[in-house]
Design goal:
It is built from six helices and seven strands, in the order ββααβαβααβαββ. It is α/β, with parallel strands linked by helices. The protein has one domain: 3-Layer(aba) Sandwich (Rossmann fold). Strands 1, 2, 3, 4, 5, 6 and 7 form a seven-stranded mixed sheet that branches. β6 and β7 form a beta hairpin. The longest helix has 18 residues. The radius of gyration is 18 Å and the shape is globular. The mean pLDDT is about 90.
Length: about 230
C-alpha cells in the first residue's frame, strides 16, 4: 500500500480508465451483459497504447486493480496491464457496470429511440427508470458512488486503477462535485482509454473531501490514427 499521510490524513487515488473502442460501439447497439463482446481491433490498439504509457514510468504506481464485469472493460484492463508489464489481480466489481438499460440490451440505438419515449429526459423523475429493467439516474449514481466508497475504504491510501465506462466516470465526477441526480445540465463525455484521476482525502481537520486531478486525459493517443477526436 502506498500512503500519502500528513497530520493523520490519507489520500486514496482512483485512476478511472474508460474502455477502448468496443464492438458494440462500432455496431451501434446497446452493449449490456447479454450483448457486449469486447473490444474492436482498434480498441485493442488503444488499450495497448495506454499500457505503454503506464510502462513509461511517468504515471502513478498502481497498487490495486478493479474492473467492471462487462467484457469490453475487462479486456481493456487486461491489455493495459499486459502492455504496462504489470501483474495485478483484476477484482471484478458488479456495481462498476455501465448504466443498465434492461430490456433494451442488444437493440440498436435507433430501435431504442423508436421503442421508448426518451423525450424530456432531464425533466423526468430521476428515481424512475425510463426503460423496463433499467437503472434510474439516481439509482445509477448511488450504485457507482457506493462502489467507489467501498473500494476506497478497503484500500485506504492506495492508487487504484479501475477499468470502467463513460457513464461510470461521469457519475464519479458528479459525486466528486456534489451534483444531485436531477442536475444534468453539463454533459461529460470521456473518450475511450482516457484517464480520469480523482483523489479522496480522509482524516485531519477538514474531514473527507474529493479532489479532481485530471479529467479525460488521452495524451497517449494524440498524434496517432487511434485518437477518437479525429473521428468525431
Amino acid at each position: 500500500m502506498t500512503e500519502t499521510q500528513t497530520d493523520s490524513t490519507f489520500t486514496t487515488r482512483f485512476l478511472l480508465i474508460r474502455h477502448g473502442e468496443s464492438n458494440v460501439m462500432v455496431e451501434g447497439v446497446v452493449g449490456g451483459p447479454n450483448t457486449c463482446s469486447g473490444l474492436s481491433a482498434r480498441g485493442k490498439e488503444q488499450a495497448a497504447c495506454l499500457g505503454e504509457r503506464l510502462a513509461s514510468g511517468n504515471e502513478n504506481s498502481i497498487d490495486v486493480v478493479y474492473s467492471s464485469p462487462l467484457p469490453r472493460a475487462i479486456e481493456t484492463t487486461e491489455i493495459v496491464l499486459s502492455s504496462a508489464l504489470q501483474q495485478h489481480e483484476i477484482n471484478i466489481h458488479s456495481d462498476l457496470e455501465e448504466f443498465r438499460l434492461g430490456e433494451a440490451d442488444g437493440l440498436t440505438w435507433e430501435q431504442v429511440r423508436e421503442k421508448y419515449d426518451l423525450g424530456n429526459f432531464e425533466q423526468r423523475d430521476p428515481f424512475v427508470p425510463i426503460i423496463p429493467g433499467a437503472d434510474s439516474r439516481a439509482g445509477f449514481r448511488h450504485r457507482v458512488g457506493q462502489a467507489l466508497s467501498q473500494i476506497g475504504s478497503t484500500h485506504v491510501g492506495s492508487t487504484i486503477l479501475i477499468g470502467c465506462h463513460g457513464g461510470v466516470i461521469s457519475a464519479a465526477m458528479a459525486i466528486a462535485f456534489g451534483l444531485g441526480p436531477n442536475q444534468w445540465h453539463t454533459e461529460l463525455a470521456p473518450n475511450v482509454t482516457s484517464i480520469t484521476e480523482l483523489e479522496v482525502v480522509s482524516g485531519g481537520e477538514r474531514g473527507r473531501r474529493w479532489m479532481c486531478r485530471r479529467y479525460n486525459d488521452t495524451s497517449h493517443l494524440h498524434g496517432t490514427d487511434l485518437d477518437p477526436r479525429d473521428h468525431l
